[in-house]
Amino acid sequence: MKRREFLVGFAVGAPMVRLWLGGSPTVAAQEGAAPAHSAPKHSALANPPSKLDRISISTWSFHNYFQSTREKEFTLPGPMLELLSYPEMIVDRYKVHHFEFCAPHFASREPAYLQELKSALARTRCQLVNIPVDIDELDIEGGLSDPSQKVRDRVVNACKKWIDVAATLGAKSVRCDPGKMDPQNLTPTAQSYRELAAYGKTKGIMVIVENHNGVGSEHPEDLIRLAKLVGTNFGTLPDFGNFPDEVTREMGLPILFPYAHVVCHAKGLEIGADGEEKRFDFPKAIQASKQAGFKGIYSIEFEGPGDPYLGVQRTLDELLKYL
Q1: Count of CA atoms in the C-beta half-sphere (13 A) of 224
Q2: Domain 3-8+48-322 classified CATH 3.40.50.300?
Q3: Cα 226 to Cα 191, 192, 249, 256, distances in angstroms
Q4: Domains of the chain by residue range
Q5: Which of 18, 48, 11, 14 is nearest to 33 (CA)?
Q6: Residue 38, pLDDT score
Q7: What is the residue-averaged pLDDT of the chain?
Q8: The 263-268 sheet, strands edge to edge
Q9: Which residue of 136, 194, 211, 323 pairs with 216 in a disulfide if CB–CB is 3.0 to 4.6 A?
Q10: What gap in Å lies between CA 282 and CA 268, rounded to an integer?
């Protein structure tokens, strides 16, 4: 997600909680799994996990249908979206029960609104995985990496509010950008993230950082150095598409994935009618995640041209092909 271009709950049933405990939600049954009573009583295959259990769809895929992030030049027809109806729409259309809700797409942080979101998630038996915290405060001066403690404190406090939101909605993580990170001096950046990670730990929320917005895209090793400095309750969010070239991608994903404990971005940039991504080697990106032992969620983030509903479907189809 290119935040600078577009700055402008959780009560689930036991089936969805089981995913995070190593089990499989009832989505498997929707995908044709045999009823439990038809399998041997102690068979491990009684409810085989569905590939859909490992997939999320980010609201950023439909950012042009959210008023706060709509591009002026976007002209495709279709109704505007809101978070309260997003889970039901995604479940009905794609049979996916996991989501990323981007911060600009929240209509409010008021308790009543968050309770409505929790109800919408519970009603559709869905799980909020991650909140990308794309907020104005992250662009104050140097953001979380500013040399001034006063500036960093202001930004950290703004991010903590979204950790609270994530905890209320039952998410697993928040993604906060580092701002103007200086690779030669990671100390202020690490201090900010240590404070956020410590606060997140008290709420059961991990803090993660993505290779995008000029940070970690060309030099993903910088994010690994940062992760080692921050330590506990901090990790990475590898994005398949956010690299300048295939060489950097092939180097970057294998070192980012060992620090990815919650989610990655399965980017869709230019998927043709044949179902293949044209801009980068999608199956090789999946293979990198598997080789690293990634056990988290693959969140679809479609950023290609044309109809995003079709783009998400094609990205989903390709993802299912290689998982």
Answers
A1: 13
A2: no
A3: 10, 11, 19, 11
A4: 3-8+48-322
A5: 48
A6: 33
A7: 88
A8: 234-237, 206-210, 173-175, 127-132, 98-100, 55-58, 297-302, 263-268
A9: 211
A10: 9
